Amino acid sequence: MKKIFILSVLVIVTAIISSCNQGKYATTNKTYREQVKAYAKLLQEYPVKDSTGLPYAADFVGTTNLSMRRPNFVVIHHTAQNSCEQTLQTFTLPRTQVSAHYVICKDGTVYHMLNDLLRAHHAGVSKWGNTTDLNSSSIGIELDNNGFEIFTEPQMNSLLILLDRLKKAYSIPASNFIGHGDIAPTRKNDPNWRFNWKLLSEKGFGNWFDDPSNATLPVGFNHLQALRIVGFDTKDTNAAIVGFKRHWLQDTTRGLNPEQLKVLYQLSKKYQ
Amino acid sequence: MILRATISKTLTICSLLVLFAAKSFSNGLPSDTTIKDVVPNNLIASADVPDPVIPEPKPSHTNSRFARANALYANMIDSLVRVIRQYPLVDSAGLRYASEWVGTPNMGMRRPNYVIIHHTATKHCNEALNEFTNNGSREASAHYVIDKDGTVYHMLSDLLRSHHAGDSKWGNTTDLNSSSIGIELVNNGYETFSADQMNSLTILLGRLKNTYRIPDANFIGHGDIAPTRKADPNHRFPWRDLSEKGFGLWWDDTTNVQVPDNFDYLMALRIIGYDISSPVSAMAAFKRHFLGDNSGGAMNAALRRIIYVLYRKYQ
With contact defined as beta carbons under 8 Å apart, do B172 and A137 qualify? Predict the structure, then answer.
């Protein structure tokens, strides 16, 4: 009898404890805080002496002119999943090792899953210009989308508000709002070709080309050079071309015809 | 009796936790608060929570010339730590945030992807140390300063952003401070770099490359990323030796190289990374780095070949 009484007390106690830490994601949120705390501890370590064999000065001299590393790019993704809930679950499982700073659901609801100043794992193996660690220099935004459908208006509205804050907060240049498919053209095709990059560029997020109809292609125009100047990794030529066409021509086919070459020429001028 | 005691204890823990959360995440903390102030020890002990983040004892270099600067350094780190520990995150006005906050455990610290080499343009190391510990003037700094005798000052955690690049551009990257490590070599701006200094630099670059997987191509100079403003490290810097050790790219023999007629060398400089908005400055920077030549931006046929060979390594 006494045992049952104690047991029921324990149950009530557990209920009370969990009631002050409600929510489906309470456990993973706790992990979040522990992780951040561990990084905080790392930053607070000093003196900093980490290369063996180096003749360090006897006195530690810390500089007083410092700040947090900031994002310089914004990389837009689609989740290729069936619901926002599914994505939240994926991003809260440590074994997946994938994440994004933001997830935007179809109804426009925003989940801010990681401090902008920390590094999310969204880019994977990728390259843009000479930058090979895009995770370290970007903000990752995932749009709930199965990979084929159009992006909803509430979703685009939330995205635009968010991009505006990011651009101002971190002085991100207009050119540096790009897609996952741009930085990993052999592996990725998101956001899908229906994504309205033109609308974004009109608001100052991403570059667009001037009217190509009156442009004359220079003799010997080197389209690979132009793609590389825009930022594409041109090791796989076809993949880079497909990446370019998805983003700037809403086209998922291969190859470049004379009209498309002109578009590329016009676009590359924006990156010089 | 046991029941009442347990419930009251639990309620205490609950309220302490709430108090703890409210205290840690409120924004109105005075700027000189330390983590110790935010997370009182007695609170932690009674709530039976694992050890709090309490900074290692502050460097007790009370007789050091830099004691004041070091104390300020520690305070600044503490305030950055408070920024990254903010929770939950709701920072865009007008955005429709979800009612429940969901954090991801899949994260890291932003890391450097470039190494930028500078010369201090000072006669002595002290001048650089003084400047980098003076936060009223130019607000300049570097992660490392290497003295002429090879002594290394590591002034800032690699994971934080130092202010060494200034207004600069490399490829599409416009915030080099955020994506690089800055290394200052003590040098008056004209002299050669001593063997001791280069030895220390090589050891350091080896560790940085391994730790942060920095590609060979991304070891560059301040003059490369800010060609209109900067000329460091000076033209005597041994970039070629460094490239042979895997730090920075180099061009090979160009004797049998046929450059295509339509080769556009400015586009090639842009692909290497140079900002070509001032072609002469970009050219001059290229010559300083890849030819040890400080004669300015004039162009010739041999140079065209070298640019051609080098640019093909950047694809």
Answer: no
Chain B segment 32-51 residues within 8 A of A by beta carbon are 35
The pTM score is 0.85
**Does B174 contact A60 at a Cβ distance shorter than 8 Å?**
no
Best to test chain A binding among B24, B107, B143, B220 (most A CBs inside 10 Å)? B107
- For residue B170, list chain A residues with Cβ-Cβ distance below 8 A: 129-130
| Closest partner CB to A64 (pick from B6, B133, B179) | B133
Tell me: the pLDDT tens digits for B236-267?
999 999 999 999 999 988 888 999 988 999 99
Please name the helix (run of DSSP H) or strand (run of DSSP E) that holds residue A19, with its range, or none: helix A2-19
User: Is the Cβ pair A109, B98 closer than 8 Å?
Assistant: yes
Per-residue pLDDT tens digits for B31-64 = 333 333 333 232 222 233 333 343 444 444 445 7
* Partners of residue B56 in chain A, C-beta under 8 Å: 44-46
Question: Least CB-CB distance to A37: which of B85, B150, B217?
Answer: B85
B246: left (phi over 0), alpha (psi -120 to 50) or beta: left
Active-site residue, A142 included: yes
Distance CA A97, CA A86 (A): 15
Cα separation of A271 and B230, whole Å? 22
Q: Which residues of B touch A43 (CB under 8 A)?
A: 77, 80-81, 157, 159-160
